[in-house]
Fold these 2 entries.
Entry 1:
Amino acid sequence: MDAPHEAVEALRGVVSAMPGGGESRPGQFEMCEAVASALDQDRHLVVAAGTGTGKSMAYLAPLAAGGK
């Protein structure tokens, strides 16, 4: 499995474990994949997203899934 896929699966696991099953936010999963890809390729990434997008989890999931 590649790092972006592993990170997205980790995020799905966290979201589904939330009370009520969490809320699926497509932008959050896209951001998670982009962050994991940037970490995997050792490059920088700048992301801008509105309040409530799920930025914090999208940044943290790739690290929890084994990012650098």
Entry 2:
Amino acid sequence: MDQTDSFSQETLSIAQMLIFNSHKRIQKSNRHAKSRETPSQMYLGIVIHCQTRKRGLIDKLYKLGLSVSYDRILSVSASLTNTLCKQYQEDGYVCPPSLRLGLFTTAAVDNIDHNPSSTTAKDSFHGTGISLFQHVTTQMNGQQRLDFQLTSIQGGRVTESLPDSYAVVKPAVLKTNVPVIPVTDSTCKGCTGDLQSRTNTGGLKLFPIQRNMI
């Protein structure tokens, strides 16, 4: 049993807020030490960033001591991305880190079409969405593939590139068979010329159309 289970969530939030806003000496700025970052403030900042992407809102919460700074969130996001890209490079393929080993997995594939009627490539998007489902049983719950530790993440905002097999799409050319046009022995006449020749030779007779007058 975890020792935090004996405390309420409100008590844990207040305790983490006190730790996050504690300083060794009086400070004139709102800077916080990374060694005192708590899960509550980090979680709140990341959630707001994912939902709104608004820097002003995160900076206001940071000044109130309720969240980490916007720059810190970008640094953590870039570090997580670099860790995943490095793992993708080692594996040779792109696989979500939440997938577990040893589980029966199925996939659902569907097209993603955004503004397909657009005449420019900038306004339209054609892609494929793949959803993976893992079937967990009471006897087998799988094995964790990766273990991310927030304390081991290094700073920086530069993200690494994905594997070429995932990021680079090779051009595809549709092969078509060239139709073979047969060669005729005589010169082909148009429909009008053929009709005129048959009319002159008497091979085609035209009858007037009679209309009944009422």
